[in-house]
Amino acid sequence: MAEYDYDVLVIGAGPGGYVAAIRAAQLGLKTACADGRETLGGTCLNVGCIPSKALLHGSEKFDEVRNGTFDLYGIKTGPVTLDLTAMQAQKLDSVKSLTGGIEFLFKKNKVTWLKGYAAFEDAHSVTVAGQKVTARNIVIATGSSVTPLPGVTVDNDAGVIVDSTGGLALNRVPEHMVVIGGGVIGLELGSVWRRLGAKVTVVEFLDQLLPGMDGDVRKEAAKIFKKQGMDLKLSTKVTGVAVDGGKATLTVEPSKGGEASTIEADCVLVAIGRRPYVDGLGLDKIGLEVNARGQVETDHDFRTKIDGVWAVGDVIPGPMLAHKAEDEGIAVAENIAGLTGIVNHDLIPGVVYTFPEFAGVGLTEEAAKEKGEIKVGKFPMLANSRAKTNHEPDGFVKVISDAKTDRVLGVWCIASVAGTMIAQATQAMEFGATSEDIAYTCHAHPTHAEALKEAAMAVTGKPIHM
Ligand code: FAD
Ligand code: NAI
Questions:
Q1: Among the atoms of ligand 2, which is closest to the Cα of residue 183?
Q2: Which residue's C-alpha comes closest to atom 3 of ligand 1?
Q3: Which spans in 260-415 are helix H?
Q4: Where's the Pyridine nucleotide-disulphide oxidoreductase dimerisation domain (predicted)?
Q5: Assigned domain for 32 exists
Q6: Per-residue pLDDT tens for 176-229?
């Protein structure tokens, strides 16, 4: 039997990879994880989830003080100014403490960090930083990178045309930011810079924002973001961007074709999606091909078609989300160890961390209708006592259930704490709950979560507070 340096070698230390490595080590497997970044944590901790949430939190506080919310509570403030350098510094502090935390966890669990980019030599060996390393099992967790827009050159250092990484690191508040793509990144980072004082225009190819979310949620999102002052140009495509000094001129036209017009901006954020990242990995050396979408395909257990090679996270099909990658990381390690690691891909919640938050799990109303007869219950946040008390009137909760069995098929929330509320819905659905199960579960009062209970009651037409 062949001898290997490690039982498990994970390539990539993002939420998929670092979690797989830690779980494998916890299960007694000799484990290493390769990543060439200066710090662990991948896209999510370094240039994704964490820095974006730090800026969303800071900018929300700034907006609250500036837009008069404090006045509602009798809190008087003086002139409010922004120290963007300090706000960026606290973002970096959060990133540093969390990426350092992963390094600590690697040491604690005896995971070896191989600092460098790995390239396959064969199915059981890679080269990392000039060294050959062998492993019985290799997990590809190389994540994703920004999808480029043809003809538009991103230069994050110059700060005029930026991607999400540059959009998180701006050292000035743009006067006019044009966001190309009304998806999750566009709306989160667009919200950050709008709150900090930029005029923000979102150019979206489709006729609604947030593709993949429930139709009602998408319509409401457009209303809410418009009300907040974003200029939305839906059904519009960017055909070119010219940069002259610090200014950009975008040429746009209706998505279906038509008369072109121009928009001037001093910052353009390109946020039209992400694509799997396998550059330099040497998949050809092991005969592993990616599919038409550039993804590494796996079976239900996260095995690729090459014996001993597994894959998880953004690089495989499914939503590109940190928690999906993490759950797959745990499952793949358990499968390698001979246990049964499972991820229920039908119940991966999605959250947009704007204000209010937009969250959903399971089927949209449109998709559920295609599968059969459904019942829908909806409850507005305006009628929820806690949201009303907190002056958070926007949003609703919507519960979609099977007309015959009443089993919940999907839940959609727009609320200040929708991201937290959706965990309860996901858990209920994981346990096969009916809308009646949720309606008859006692919810603490006064909480936003009561809106979920009332939406479940509304499925049979009997909410109390509406
Ligand atoms: P990644 O996190 O991309 O990690 C892959 C790692 O592999 C990288 O560190 C890379 O350096 C390394 N790597 C690549 N090739 C090699 C190689 N050959 N050798 C060694 N290492 C290699 N998701 C959420 O769920 N919630 C959020 O709030 C959220 N916010 C986001 C905000 C932004 C701005 C962005 C860009 C993304 C956000 N995401 C969010 C998505 C989330 O970051 C990804 O889904 C998640 O990071 C995927 O994890 P992963 O482990 O598959 O890959
Ligand atoms: P996205 O897929 O969410 O949105 C991209 C948007 O760009 C879509 O609405 C699409 O129709 C539009 N688009 C595409 N081409 C266009 C063009 N030429 N002109 C105008 N619009 C165009 O992708 P995004 O926002 O870049 O985010 C990438 C991924 O990162 C997300 O899919 C998500 O998985 C992850 N992410 C998750 C977050 C979260 O969970 N809160 C936060 C940020 C990112």
A1: 4
A2: 143
A3: 322-336, 365-371, 385-389
A4: 348-456
A5: yes
A6: 999 999 999 999 999 999 999 999 999 999 999 999 999 999 999 999 999 999
Residues 82-87: contacts with CB under 8 Å, at least 24 apart: 82/173, 82/196, 82/197, 84/170, 84/171, 84/172, 84/173, 84/196, 85/171, 87/55, 87/58, 87/59, 87/62
Residue 349 in tokens: 């919640």
Share of the chain above pLDDT 70, in %: 100
Atom of ligand 2 nearest to the CA of 322: 40
Q: What is the pLDDT of residues 271-308, one digit of tens each?
A: 999 999 999 999 999 999 999 999 999 999 999 999 99
Ligand 1 binding pocket (C-beta < 6 A) is 11-17, 34-37, 42-44, 48-49, 52, 117-118, 141-144, 164, 185, 277, 280-281, 313-314, 320-323, 325, 353
Two tokens at 109?
A: 């669990």
Res. 68 pLDDT band, cuts 50 70 90: confident
Residues 142 and 228 in one domain: no
ipTM over 0.90: yes
Q: Ligand nearest 53 Cα, by number?
A: 1
Domain end, chosen from 336, 362, 387, is at: 336
- In this structure, is residue 409 part of a structural domain? yes
The domain of 453 spans 350-459
Q: What is the mean pLDDT of residues 149-170?
A: 96
Number of domains in the chain: 3
